[in-house]
Write a structure and sequence with these properties.
With about 120 residues, this protein is an all-alpha fold. The protein has one domain. The chain is built from five helices and no strands. It has helices at about 1-15, 15-25, 35-60, 65-85, 95-110. α2 packs across α3 (about 35-60) and α4 packs antiparallel against α5. The protein is elongated, with a radius of gyration of 17 Å. About 20% of the residues are buried.
């Protein structure tokens, strides 16, 4: 437990959220998980924020792309956002991700039909 906590703290200090999650994930079912739960939450929120921003940038950038490429990017964005909700339901960004998904779905529905 102590080694995992130290590894997670070191990773978080470097903004390496994936490494922090990897260090803590095996302990999720440990009876002492509460001791490191704040580190888990910090790692989850850091990772979710990073991935949400990456998806947002892809979504924004893809607006200038040809329709076929835009459609593929939109599907990737939806997959990322849906995956974040599925994999990290405890994130404090949950409401923001839901809003982002709704925006993506609205824009997808408003897109011109393929010719």
């Amino acid at each position: 437990m102590e080694a995992a906590g130290a590894a997670a703290r070191d990773a978080l200090a470097k903004n390496d959220y994936a490494a922090a999650l990897d260090a803590l994930r095996p302990l999720r079912d440990d009876e002492r998980f509460a001791e490191i739960a704040p580190l888990w939450q910090e790692a989850v929120d850091g990772w979710v924020h990073h991935e949400r921003e990456r998806a947002g940038l892809l979504f924004q950038t893809s607006r200038a792309w040809p329709q076929a490429e835009r459609d593929a990017a939109t599907q990737e964005v939806k997959g990322v956002l849906e995956g974040l909700l599925r994999d990290y339901p405890e994130t404090t960004y949950k409401a923001a991700i839901v809003r982002n998904l709704q925006l993506v779905e609205r824009e997808t529905a408003a897109a011109p039909a393929p010719k």
